Amino acid sequence: MPDAPSVRARQRFRAAYDADPAGLWAAPGRVNLIGEHTDYNDGYVLPFALPHTTVAAAAPHEGDGWTVVSDDGSPVHFGAAEAAEPGAVPGWAGYVAGVVWALRDAGFDPPPARLALGSDVPVGAGLSSSAALESSVLTALVDLGGLDLPVDRRPAVAQRAENAYVGVPCGIMDQSASVRSRAGHALFLDCRTLDVEHIPFDVARDGLAVLVVDSNAPHKLVDGEYANRRSTCEAAAAALGLTALRDVTDLDAALAALDDDVTRRRVRHVVTENQRVLDTVELLRGGRVREIGPLLTASHASMRDDFAITVPEVDTAVETALTAGAYGARMTGGGFGGCVIALVDADAAETVADAVRRAFADRGFAAPDHFVATPGPGATRLE
Ligand code: GAF
């Protein structure tokens, strides 16, 4: 059992700087229960925070910038000039520099600091390791600097770091899940108004579990497919004379007004997915957890057939989980690999995971990983 991220972050801080941190700040990864590629269309999402976190051990430091050390051991230093120029700090440290850049861009003055990171959020699995990194660093710098940045405004700053400094055109879901989630709840977020409702989500009470299967098929937002989906959606909204696809009120009329079949499919996914989020929330409010299963499965079919963002590994995981008795299953996250979630009877989780493992072996795919996810808290100071 590896050390907890907080232990690793603290040890790393001591080893790198020969001093104790002023504090430890944790921010989680997430799974998205439903609502995929709806966030940048001003729509609805329903993620929940994982117990997996990235922890930033940090202390203010008199000097000319920021130093950060992570798993690879060698500290990365950047000064005010690099923090002022998007893209100047490459690799994972660019997310840290991006947070400094975005805070300054929002009118704040983050303090020069030393940081050390520890994380158990799987990287490249579509579980928002980037948002966890941004959110842990953001929360640390806000606290260390006594910056007056309310919690509900923090996700947009972290998103700016990723959009404008790192250059990934993500929406606001992942940073919102990492910052604003509540333990035992899913986060119902209106991505236009940024209003949230914390929806109780304790499936164990109903004898259920959310099984997360990591397909181990590589997942990348940076190669153009994500950006391509986003620009198709934005162009479709413009062609329909709308601010965003969220504003489609008559799907048939919208589809009839578009002449490109691919665009029509992308629009159909977004509009029907928004409705599935609303329907899921309604069922959860009524305590009808098992009944969300078909909505999860319909979401997957829509991502596979209309949005074209699934890969054979995740399709296999979903089909196998359903055959093995899951109430519903879908890919979660941006797509092109990553994880599948399946709503299963709690005592069937290992059986379902085992069926997926065998199906992967039969097809010659790399072995998947799995765990049962329970909703954890959003970003917080640990000590
Ligand atoms: C990725 C992005 F970062 C999110 O903003 C969201 O668009 C998601 O893909 C798809 O729902 O995680």
TrEMBL record:
Domain (Galactokinase N-terminal) ranges: 11-60
Transmembrane segments: none
Domain GHMP kinase N-terminal: 95-180
Enzyme Commission designation: 2.7.1.6
Chain coiled-coil ranges: none
Record-annotated active site: D174
Keywords: ATP-binding, Carbohydrate metabolism, Cytoplasm, Galactose metabolism, Kinase, Magnesium, Metal-binding, Nucleotide-binding, Transferase
Binding-site list for Mg(2+): S130, E162
Location(s) in or outside the cell: Cytoplasm
Binding site for ATP: S70, G124, A125, G126, L127, S128, S129, S130
GO MF terms held by the record: ATP binding; galactokinase activity; magnesium ion binding
Domain GHMP kinase C-terminal as annotated: residue spans: 281-361
Keyword set includes rRNA-binding: no
One annotated GO biological process: galactose metabolic process
Annotated site, Transition state stabilizer, chain positions: R30
Function according to Swiss-Prot or TrEMBL: Catalyzes the transfer of the gamma-phosphate of ATP to D-galactose to form alpha-D-galactose-1-phosphate (Gal-1-P).
Record's protein name: Galactokinase
PANTHER family (alphabetical): GALACTOKINASE-RELATED (PTHR10457:SF7), MEVALONATE KINASE/GALACTOKINASE (PTHR10457)
GO cellular component: cytosol
Pathway the protein contributes to: Carbohydrate metabolism; galactose metabolism
Positions contributing to substrate binding: E36, H37, T38, D39, Y226
UniProt record similarity statement: Belongs to the GHMP kinase family. GalK subfamily.
Pfam families xref list: GalKase_gal_bdg, GHMP_kinases_C, GHMP_kinases_N
UniProt main location, coarse: cytoplasm
Catalytic activity: alpha-D-galactose + ATP = alpha-D-galactose 1-phosphate + ADP + H(+)
